[in-house]
Amino acid sequence: MAIWQFSLYLIPNESIKRMFKDTPSKLSLDVAEDTSWWSGYQPHRGFENTIHTILPEMHSWSESLRIWGDESANAILVGYLTGEKREVEEIEIRIDVSNLSNEFVLRACRWAADLDCLGRTKAHEVVRPEYFEVHETIMRSRAMRFVQDPVKTLQSLRKDEFDRKG
């Protein structure tokens, strides 16, 4: 993943409801990264067909990963538990902030809403898949800070933070 990309990891709304009384605005590091969000909650059959209307599918470097778009630009990645691609493990939407496409953001948000998902950022914020909420979160992101001032952004990163956030 490139520093100029903003990632939104999809979380099934039902999975959040199972864990929390109310939808949190932020998750702890442990909960965000150690929870199997898709366990017991799989997207509807044929959900990948809709992605084809947003971005073209590209060759994947892994049997258990499908990639639409360009991994270093706008992309949707679907990770599966096995190479048989029957059970989703993770869905990530990557948004190229250096060439921000409002159309891509809007279409990705609609797709995520159709899947009844919320989004989780790298900073563990929970966002609804609504265009204005996602756009506002992008505008506050490290990816946007990098695009606006790459030198200052890179200088502000501590090595351990850079290693952890990738």
Give a brief outline of the structure.
Helix content is 37%, strand content 22%.
Q: Any low-confidence stretches, pLDDT <50, length ≥5?
A: none
Query: What value does the Rg take, in angstroms?
Result: 15 Å
How would you sum up the major sheet? 7 strands, antiparallel
Strand content: 15-25%
Widest sheet: strand order? 2-3-4-5-1-6-7
Helix content: 25-40%
Shape descriptor reads globular
Strand tally, please?
7
Order of helices and strands: EHHHEEEEHEEHHHH
Mean pLDDT: 91
In terms of topology, how is this protein built?
Blueprint: E1 5-12, H1 13-19, H2 29-34, H3 47-51, E2 57-58, E3 65-69, E4 75-80, E5 88-96, H4 102-114, E6 117-120, E7 126-127, H5 131-139, H6 142-148, H7 150-156, H8 159-165
Antiparallel strand pairs: 1-5, 1-6, 2-3, 3-4, 4-5, 6-7
Helix pairs in contact: 6-7
